[in-house]
Each structure stands twice: as C-alpha cells, then as structure tokens.
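Listing S7. Sequence submitted for prediction.
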Amino acid sequence: MSTVSRLSRRLGRVPFLDQRDRSLLLVLPGLFIFSAFMLFPVVYLVGISFTNAAPANLFAGEGAFSVLTFGEATFVGLRNYADVLADPEFWNSFGVTWLFVFTSVLMKISLSIGVALVVTNDRVRGRRLMRSFIILPMGLPAIFTITVWRGIFSSAEFGLVNQVLDLLGSGSVAWLSTRWPAFFAYNVTEMWLAYPFMVIITVSALQDVPEELHEAATVDGAGFIARFFHVTLPAIKRPVLFASILTAAASFQQFLIPFVFNQGGPARANELIVVYGYREALSFSQYGRGAAISLIAVVFIGAFMWINVKKGKLADGVGDE
C-alpha cells in the first residue's frame, strides 16, 4: 500500500473531517512546496520591482531575514518600469529578442521537417539508428554543447567554421566580435539544441498521416513536392505549430547562448532580453530595474503563448480539428 493510501485511511478515521477536508489535507504539502519554490520567488520579484533595491540597501538591514522585507530599499512605485521603457537599450534588446525568436524558429522548423522526412522515408536504410543519433543533443548538458559551438564559431583561424571557409578560399570571419555573424551563430546553436524535440514531434505526426492520401495523390499524378505541400504539410500542421510555440517560448528566454558566446556583444548589440535583465541586476547592481525587466519579459511571453494557442486553436488538443 502506498504512503498516500495509508495517510488517506488514517485521515478517514478522524471524525470531524469530511471527504473534502481530507482531500485538501493531502494536497497541502504539494501546495506548500509549490509556494516555497515557485510562487514566493515570483511574489518577491514583483515586490523588488517597485523598489530601488541594490546590494547597498537590500542587505543593509538588521536581522537575518531583513532581506525578506527588502532591507533598507525604498518604494519607488513605477519608476523602474518607466526607466526601462524609456531606455533605448531595452528596445534594442526587445527587438533583437523577437528577431532571434522568428529566425531561430524558422530554422528549427525547416531543419526538423527535412530530417523527419528523411528518417521516415522507406527508401532510407538505417532509419532507427539515425533516430537514435538525432536525440543525442538532448542527452548532453546545454552548457557543454554551447561551449563546443563557441569553439566552432571562434573568431580565430583555428575555429572550425573559419577553417572550412579557408578551404573554400574565403577569408576568416570575426564571428563573435561582429554583430550579425554573432547573431547567426546564436541561431545555429539554438537550432542544434532544439531540433531533436522538433524532430520527435514531426516524426510522430508524419507517422500518423494516412498512406492512402499519398497513394491517391500519386495516382492523380502529384510528384514529391506537390504531395508535400498538399498532403503532408496540412496533415502535420497542428503538431508542428504546437511544437513551434513551445520552442519559440524557450527561444524568448534564451540566456546561455548569448552569455557564453560573447555576453550579448559586441557592445551589448545582441543582448537578448533575459541577458539584458541579468546584466542590469547583477553587473550594474540594479536589482529593482532587473526585476522590472524580468516581469516585462514574463508578460510578453505569456501574451505570446496565449495569442498563439488561441489563434492556433490548440487548446482542444493537437490532434483535434
């Protein structure tokens, strides 16, 4: 008998507890853990965003728990939000972040559909072995993979990409010290990290496409390209859209790639919004300002998810029409 079942039976012997009260007692430990590790940090972040919190005042109060009451930080109202929204660096970060989301998702969808079509084609040998290699990036720590890609895109001549360019007769590129080459390197690395998840979803969707549809299209004289656009793509549209929304939200929150590559450089030109908030809080010791940036990012991520789920009609499930 499980621990929950034994606890439920013991609570059932308590005369003044009805069934609803016993059920509530069983979920209270989970609610406490959720509040301690999820809800409380969010509430605390909201509180800090309305103060001028910084290391000099947040940790200056007396008592071990003074930081929970924001120390000697003072209430400043919406000033942090106003300062952030008036900062050109914020709007640069905001624009670069959305551009990164758009380009990286487009690249991930293109690569994933292409790979999924290969590993589900009956003419391809070793499909199962290929699928096992496809999910390999999911088993590696993200920091390890990003560090490897940083070496691949190294601006020095020993960087793998620069070596390939030299073999092709082109000159070396300062990948991480030039804005758009660095932005391209972000996209390639993000694509590599996320494509296994996209491929898994796409392969599952492709396997659910009725073979009779392909056979009917072939009989009607449709070639591979025509079958892809008129049969395959409409059939896998909803699962791919669902996966794209999830990976787009992850791209919006991307921190490790720009920070490990060049900390959002050169000269903060490629700072994604999470990196921007991190640097404002920890590099420039503006905790209140960093909290405001984080909450603004949360609002935009939430709005993005809600709009896409509603417009994509995904709330009823991936497979429903």
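Caption to Listing S7: primary sequence and predicted structure tokens for the chain studied. DSSP finds 14 helices and no strands in the chain. The domain at 87-311 is CATH 1.10.3720.10 (MetI-like fold).
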